[in-house]
Each structure stands twice: as structure tokens, then as C-alpha cells.
């Protein structure tokens, strides 16, 4: 199954991910991402899925303007339904390819790339990062969330379905030296934070 067609099956249960893995609010990568957003930031949530990050920022920071994009109509429908139920007006969701964004150059303060890169062949992941850099302001930040398997036995057991369900690129991506990977795009790591089952990395454009 390709990384996109799997969401035709998973869209209705995708939000269980947060219930199972990210239920501890203080250690959740969602909380770590939210803390990095300023009150009036313009935010792009690439491959937003069911919009969890986008909606949590929109709710906590009403002055932000957030665009969430995804290629899966099913995932976006869940995101849009949640948006309607919440009544939030500062977030919009678009059907769009992350490798061909329909936004102008240098227009976002923060770009989220959450739980995505490990699903892609390197060439596709590279294209997504380059497109993100194009639409990011020069002093903007890219915030990456990626899986980080734990050494704790109970967490290892709970995490095992993830390793099993993830597509082929996952195994090599989790072992990747991310410092040199991001450096090849002219990005540097400003902050590296360990959260439950994940790491959250803040990247800036090298001056
Ligand atoms: C694991 S989900 C991540 C969802 C969300 N970012 C999160 O943190 O929960 C990956 C998402 O990437 C989307 N996706 C994959 N390739 C894409 C592309 N080229 N352009 C836009 N979205 C894409 C999938 O449809 C899916 O919704």
C-alpha cells in the first residue's frame, strides 16, 4: 500500500494515535509544537492529516492564521468536520500537494512537518523540504516532529505496531543523522526536544 492510499483506510481511526501515544499533555509533541508558535504567526501545517496540530494552535492562539494542506480528501474531511464543530475561523484546510504549494514565496513564519518525512522516499521528502523553504520567511522556522523509539520496555511494546505499520522508508529514516540531512538544504537545528515517542526539531535557514 502506498503512503497515501493507506489513509483511505486509516482516516477514521487516525486520531487514536493521539489517544494512545500522546495522551500525556506535558510530554506530547503537540504541546511542544504549540509552545513554539507566537501569537500572531502565520503558520503552514504541511500534510496536516486530520488537522490536530493546526486546530490546537488555532484554538490556543486566536490571532494566528493557519493553513493546513493535505493530499488525502478523507483525512481533510475529518479535519474540516473538527474545524466546523469547533467554530474556529483562523484555520483553513486545502487539498494540495506538499511538493507543489500554491502559496507565494516567503509568506509563512512557521511551517510544521509532523510525522511525514519517515513515510517518504528520500527524493520526495527532499522536495517537500525545498518547497517548505521556498514559502518560509527568511527568519521563519520549520518545526519537524518525527518518531523516536524509546528504550523503555513498556514504551517499546506499545510502539511496536508503529514500526510494523509504517511504510518502507521508516526504518532508514529513524536511523538517519538529521544534523547532516538538514544541513544539505542550508538548514540548521536550533532546538532538539525529546517528547513521548517522538522528537521535535526546530530548523532555521542558515544566515
Ligand atoms: C502520518 S499523517 C501526518 C498527519 C499530521 N501531520 C499529524 O501530525 O498527525 C501523513 C499525512 O501526509 C499526507 N501526505 C502524504 N503525501 C503528501 C503530499 N505529497 N502532499 C500533501 N499531503 C501528503 C497524507 O495524506 C497524510 O494525511
Explain the overall architecture.
The chain has 207 residues and is α/β, with parallel strands linked by helices. The chain has a single domain (6-205), classed as Rossmann fold. Helices cover 38% and strands 25% of the residues. The protein has helices at 6-10, 16-21, 29-35, 52-60, 73-86, 122-135, 153-165, 169-173, 178-183; strands at 42-46, 65-70, 91-95, 108-114, 136-147, 187-195, 198-205. The mean pLDDT is 95. The structure holds S-adenosylmethionine. The site of S-adenosylmethionine has 19 residues, from helix 4 and strand 2.
In short:
With 207 residues, the protein is an alpha/beta fold.
Defining traits:
9 helices, 207 residues, globular, alpha/beta, single chain, 7 strands, Rossmann fold, binds S-adenosylmethionine, 7-stranded mixed β-sheet
Strand order of the largest sheet: 3-2-1-4-5-7-6
Specify the oligomeric state: single chain
Structural class: alpha/beta
Q: What is the correct CATH architecture?
A: 3-Layer(aba) Sandwich
The biggest sheet, with number of strands, parallel, antiparallel or mixed sense and barrel status, is: 7 strands, mixed
| Fraction of residues in β-strands | 25-35%
- In total, the number of strands is 7
Bound molecules: S-adenosylmethionine
What count of structural domains?
A: 1
Percent of residues in helices: 25-40%
How do the strands and helices of this protein lay out in sequence?
Blueprint: H1 6-10, H2 16-21, H3 29-35, E1 42-46, H4 52-60, E2 65-70, H5 73-86, E3 91-95, E4 108-114, H6 122-135, E5 136-147, H7 153-165, H8 169-173, H9 178-183, E6 187-195, E7 198-205
Parallel strand pairs: 1-2, 1-4, 2-3, 4-5
Antiparallel strand pairs: 5-7, 6-7
The protein binds S-adenosylmethionine.
